[in-house]
Amino acid sequence: MSSLSSYLPPGDGLLPRWLLLVSTIALGNSIQAYTTLHYTQRLYSGPSPTTPSPSTTAPSTSPATPLQARTFGTWTLLQSLVRLYGAYHISDPLMYELVLWTYGIAFAHFVSEWLVFRTARWGIPLAFPVAISTGSLVWMVAQWGWYVQ
């Protein structure tokens, strides 16, 4: 166990470990965005159908394309790396602010795709990134004085 703890971010509190966890999950999300279109199309499911389809094999209304999925994967990879670096440099005010920005941008992106552009529908695929970005943003703002001196 001590060998594992040597890889964990230094410092007190759970926030650095949370950033490491979210960064690791985002890395996996980036990989899947490059390898399959399925999950990206679940997230960006397109506008709600105006009439319910009786067929269970209705074609996807998702606007997601392979190019968009790879672009999303690249964007997610970049955010993952910023958060990973932030986990290990949590007391650096510039790094802390950059990590905050990643969550703010993610929140704005997902909410705008849902409410403004209507390319995402509320459900589990959208609820997770919205909850993670919102919760992390609130947590980081509340803990600024604890980590940044």
TrEMBL record:
Q: What's a Gene Ontology MF term here?
A: protein-macromolecule adaptor activity
Q: What is its main location?
A: endoplasmic reticulum
Sorted UniProt keywords: Endoplasmic reticulum, Lipid biosynthesis, Lipid metabolism, Membrane, Steroid biosynthesis, Steroid metabolism, Sterol biosynthesis, Sterol metabolism, Transmembrane, Transmembrane helix
An example of a Gene Ontology cellular component annotation for this protein is: endoplasmic reticulum membrane
Species this chain originates from: Cryomyces minteri
A biological process (GO) annotation for this entry? sterol biosynthetic process
Q: Where are the transmembrane segments?
A: 98-117, 124-146
Q: In the UniProt record, does the keyword Zinc occur? A: no
Q: What spans are recorded as compositionally biased (Low complexity)?
A: 53-65
Family statement drawn from the similarity comment of this UniProt entry: Belongs to the ERG28 family.
The topology of this chain with respect to the membrane is:
Multi-pass membrane protein
Cellular compartment(s): Endoplasmic reticulum membrane
Q: Which Pfam families match?
A: Erg28 (PF03694)
Segments of this protein annotated with the region Disordered: 45-65
Q: What is this protein called?
A: Ergosterol biosynthetic protein 28
